[in-house]
Amino acid sequence: MSLDGHNVRPKNGLRTWCGCFLVILLCVYSLAMTILVLATVKVSLWLAAPLGNDPNGFVPASVGAPPRWRTFVRNESNPYHIPDNVFASEIMTRETVESLIQTHSSAVRINGRHARWVHDDDSKSTLQATFTPPSMGQDQVYFIRGLYQMRCIIVLLEAYGTSINRQTNITDATHKTKTNGNKKGEDDDDHDVWHWPPEHVAYCLNVLADAVQCTADATPLSFVNGFGSGHLTDGQQAWCRDWDSLRAWAADEERSVDAARGGAALTGSFGRLWRTVLP
């Protein structure tokens, strides 16, 4: 108030208002930049994930890392080794397949965590989980790509072994059909003459071809023991991610899937579909 009693409007009112507006503007700008930086970092981490790592983070980056030189042992100490005489008999093939099935599982429970998947047009969505059959508790699961690729190798082993012994199987099945009065039993369909559909065998070959192209392994090879002596990969280590680490992570009780409980589901069309991904 002035000396003559009149009110005087504060001169700093406009400055105060401008100052507050500037502070608000800076806060909004800082927040926007923080969000942009975090989004950029997230995208950069997605793009910079080493080959074989999960860009989603669903499988921790430490699993399967770091890469190392590895010798693939060609004997029983390697649980995934397929013996040279695997196709010598139907029994030998079956025993090898069963051994691999008991060793391996492609599925893991998601435990409430989700990954993303990239569409063919590069857009991204949340990856929905698959529910296991009722006999397996209807758990929500994901299938780990590398483990599923190994499942395809088991399928190819079984399919080729079946094709070699198929004539024997068909002969036995024909004999049983005649013995049963031309009635085909359920066991005959599920066991005696079961073979993988050719389309699924071709699919598995393509899955493995995709994996080979994806890794694009550029390691040179040669016949180190002389040309024609042994195989091309003999005596030479490979630069690999830690398969045992990935397998142990998937087999941990926290997330492992008891594939043995799925036996009751492996009947009919639904069961045959699950047979393509179990174990």
TrEMBL record:
Q: Where are the transmembrane segments?
A: 21-47
Which Gene Ontology biological process is one annotated for this entry?
mycotoxin biosynthetic process
Copy the pathway line from the protein's UniProt record: Mycotoxin biosynthesis
Q: Which Pfam families match?
A: UstYa
Swiss-Prot/TrEMBL keywords: Membrane, Transmembrane, Transmembrane helix
Fetch the InterPro entries from UniProt. Answer: UstYa-like
Its family remark reads:
Belongs to the ustYa family.
Q: What is this protein called?
A: Uncharacterized protein
